[in-house]
Amino acid sequence: MRDNEVTDKHGNVIDRGDYVSTKIRSGTHEGRVEEVITDLQRADEVGVKNPPKIHFKNKDGKMVAHNPSTLEVDETE
User: Fold this and answer.
1) pLDDT digits over 15-54, tens only?
2) How far apart are CA 31 and CA 58, in angstroms?
3) 10 occurs within a structural domain
4) Cβ(42)–Cβ(17) below 8 Å
5) What is the CATH number of the domain that holds 58?
6) pTM, two decimal places
7) Domain carrying residue 68
8) Banded model confidence at residue 75, pLDDT cuts 50, 70, 90
9) How many domains does the chain fold into?
10) InterPro entries from the xrefs (predicted)?
């Protein structure tokens, strides 16, 4: 594993294009990763704090950003 790789809560590397999900409240946020944000400058540009963040569009079409440690990569998608 390279130093700049971001992993999910099971240690799987998260890359752009991966399908990820997380349980939130009484449902889930899930979608295909559009960007893995690892630096402060890019985080400021897209309006997220405390990188690393995984940026993806949820099933309602809203862009969301989550901490990688809260996500699971779905390798069947």
Assistant:
1) 999 999 999 888 999 999 999 999 999 999 999 999 999 9
2) 5
3) no
4) no
5) 2.30.30.1060
6) 0.88
7) 19-73
8) confident
9) 1
10) Hva1_TUDOR
